[in-house]
């Protein structure tokens, strides 16, 4: 058992629990016994709210630390977020006070709630800071993970449309190749089967033809280039890859030009190809050939189609040894096992899946965590606020205020706490999240002022749910659960 992390988490829990118990106890000890016994809630004394100067200084320190941590690593970015969090926490009481001053033109229920929150700055600030911290963590992790996912998807081009089954025959002879075609027709009934070409040298050795890619973050093209195998074929395979007939692309293919579906592959009207021998006995060859950009069958599809004349120019031969089918078998692994068992291990099948959607589960987990933390802190603060405002709410009902007004007042309390915390957390989380993208997706850079390029992808749906959806949900639930029956209490002078 890793005792270090376990004891660290346990110590953090003990300190957090003691802090959560001591702070309310200190606040309670400062209340007037006369006010408590008479049922009147204590109000925070007017004056300076929090420590805005200290908070601003810590925020600036956190921003500088984040800039310094860009090229250090993930742990450095997390450490740099600590002064930023403390700075925002120190600024929250001042923000609560400023919000109360701006409540004069709000409708009555909102005005009552916001001003009550400003009068009880300590109570409101504690809950707002908790919501802020939770929102900041969710936003930062969401931006970092979404950026990492975007980079990986950009570097994983789809050479064929999603949902395509490819069967590669290797060096089968003509008789076994014909048998493989019949086998594929039987296994993939009703599928559109299109033949592709495989490259070989004069001795019949298999050769893989690949196109040169560059990483999204490449500032040194020679260092960050990599190669991805591409289909070789004729106009029938082109129509299969495009999902229809394209006369311009078909004419270019017939003229010996490579048809490219990703414009970033083309440099000065040409594309770089590499021919590599599968047995590794012959050095790979690279060549640049004319290329034309055409539309792909799907938005996520990239790559290119290499015509047979290009192989001839490289001194290679082309034979039909690849099958493409627009159907996915019910059990892809069973098909691959059956293909290998029937025709040998050099014959295999591959199913091209679509974009990886596993990141959606991570986003849902983050949203669930935010739901628990934000709603928990908001409801705790709203419950205390409703108890403190009970006499005011009862008086409001006594002078003719309908039950809806009481619900709106409580709902506005929840919206004030969760909304302000979510907005402040969004600002801090965006800074930390963008800083987190450098150690997660950077490919180069080591200087303070040049941390290297990065990929920044914002999970807009997650941010909308956390910053807008959760405060709205908190307000709705708090309003529906609010007590609407007045219970007038005896007032004491």
UniProtKB/TrEMBL annotation:
<protein>
    <recommendedName>
        <fullName>FtsX-like permease family protein</fullName>
    </recommendedName>
</protein>
